[in-house]
Amino acid sequence: MTEKSIHPENSISPRNPIRPVEALLVVDVQVAFVSGDEAVPDAARVLDRSRDLLDRARAAGALIVHLQNDGPPGAVDEPGTPGWELRLPVVPGPREKVVRKTDDDGFVDTPLGDLLTGARVEALAVCGVLSEMCVSATARAALERGFRVVLPHDAHATYDIPAAPGISEVVPAAMSSRAAEWALGDEIEIVARSAEVTFADVASPVPPEQPAPTLPSPAADASRRSGLPDGIRPAPFA
Fold first, then answer.
1. Whose CA is closest to 25, among 136, 165, 171, 109?
2. From the centroid of its chain, how far is CA 112?
3. CA–CA separation, 13 and 16 (whole Å)
């Protein structure tokens, strides 16, 4: 039995300030999930908190990755449809990227892992939708890869779970989101408010260009072959 299971109060927001993170993953904040009839119940709150996280991550120079789900044909997030579009503006650049995915786990068959390791990220925050699906799968995968992961409770959301005869009544979305947090285990750092998340600068994810190799001059090359010091050419044959 772990400390978390003995002391549930430890699963939300330690009393000490949260250490800064170098990256922010914005998961599936797409029009279909946060706008109109298909929106999650707490869409307005998630959008507000995500905007604030984005603003502060940009100001700090952190790496930002917007994950965008490519749904199957006919789905509300089918690529190219209005619902598939990202809801929050992207500021393209070396520290802000969009990564498309087809799996709940944002690392599967995407460059996400390379972006994070290339920028030397050690800790990241996650926000977006849906709590028990793509948010949870991506956060868990990040933990498994050795990243420190911070999950602000008020910056992710999901849908109500419908009633199931003989199993349960409707499970409210807020309860489902909380259960998704709990299921991530002891390594996840859950904070009650996204305002508690702070960001640190990170190196550009674009790897620096390697300098071209310096080729020896013909004179130096001839000197090395002859065993003479550089700059002294061997005497030509008579």
1. 136
2. 7
3. 8
Element housing 47 (H / E): helix 43-60
Question: Whats the size of the chain, residue-wise?
Answer: 238
Q: Among this protein's residues, is 134 annotated catalytic?
A: yes
**Six-digit token pair at 73?**
């044909």
Q: In this structure, what token pair is assigned to residue 198? A: 């702070």
What are the two backbone dihedrals, phi and then psi, of residue 153, each rounded to the nearest 5 degrees?
A: -60, -35
User: Model's pTM, two decimal places?
Assistant: 0.80
Q: Is omega for the bond preceding 130 within 30 degrees of 0, making it cis?
A: yes
pLDDT in tens, the chain (238 residues): 444 443 344 445 555 678 999 999 999 999 999 999 889 999 999 999 999 999 999 999 999 999 999 999 999 999 999 999 999 999 999 999 999 999 999 999 999 999 999 999 999 999 999 999 999 999 999 999 999 999 999 999 999 899 999 999 999 999 999 999 999 999 999 999 999 999 999 865 444 334 444 444 444 444 444 444 444 344 433 3
The residue from 62, 121, 134, 155 that is catalytic is 134
Token duo for residue 19: 């250490």
Measured distance CA(150)–CA(17) in Å, rounded: 12
CA distance 224 to 17: 61
Tokens of 130: 């849906």
> Do residues 62 and 201 lie in contact, with contact meaning Cβ atoms separated by under 8 Å?
yes
Q: What is the 3-state secondary structure (H, E, C) of 144-163?
A: HCCCEEEEEHHHEECCCECC
80, two tokens: 């190219």
Q: Which helix (H) or strand (E) holds 43?
A: helix 43-60
The two tokens of residue 225 are: 């072959």
- For residue 71, give both structure tokens: 């749904």
